[in-house]
Design a protein that fits this description.
The protein is of the alpha/beta class and about 150 residues long. It has a single domain, classed as Rossmann fold (3-Layer(aba) Sandwich), CATH 3.40.50.450. Helices cover about 45% and strands about 15% of the residues. It has a 5-stranded parallel β-sheet with strand order 2-1-3-4-5, with helices on both faces.
Length: about 150
């Protein structure tokens, strides 16, 4: 199974955290597409369309989308990718380790949270959850006896 790793990439901390998510997803047994490693680099206005098309293609090809949701609000590009993944019926896992809460019973925007299949609050849970998901998806049910 293949995962698309989504999240903001605007500073070294965000890039580092996405690399940590990617490592855990691969450790759980999935192959990954990580923009900062595998994607077209941003070199100016001429790269906007190719990057957009590549991201749409990679989300569409993925079986799973794993997204960093940290911050006071989810990154707008990440939110767009999550909407595409939801519309395409992908299995979606959010990772939110930020201690700030918007509301007492809501970790992230309810439209984001409502589209998730699972919300991990640490990287250990992410790795465990994806490993269990893979087991469920790759274990064939026993056939009926005739």
């Amino acid at each position: 199974m293949h995962a698309y790793i989504a999240g903001p990439m605007f500073n070294p901390g965000e890039l580092y955290y996405l690399a940590q998510i990617d490592a855990r997803v691969r450790k759980a047994g999935l192959t990954t597409f990580l923009n900062q490693r595998d994607g077209i680099p941003f070199t100016g206005p001429q790269s906007v369309e190719p990057i957009f098309k590549e991201d749409v293609e990679q989300v569409t090809k993925a079986d799973v989308v794993v997204a960093s949701l940290n911050g006071m609000d989810v990154d707008s590009g990440t939110a767009w990718e999550l909407g595409l993944a939801y519309a395409r019926g992908k299995y979606i896992v959010g990772v939110y380790t930020d201690l700030r809460l918007h509301f007492k019973y809501q970790t992230v925007n309810l439209m984001i949270q409502g589209g998730l299949d699972h919300l991990s609050t640490d990287l250990d849970d992410l790795e465990w959850h994806l490993a269990e998901y893979l087991k469920r998806k790759t274990t064939k049910p026993a056939g009926k006896k005739k």
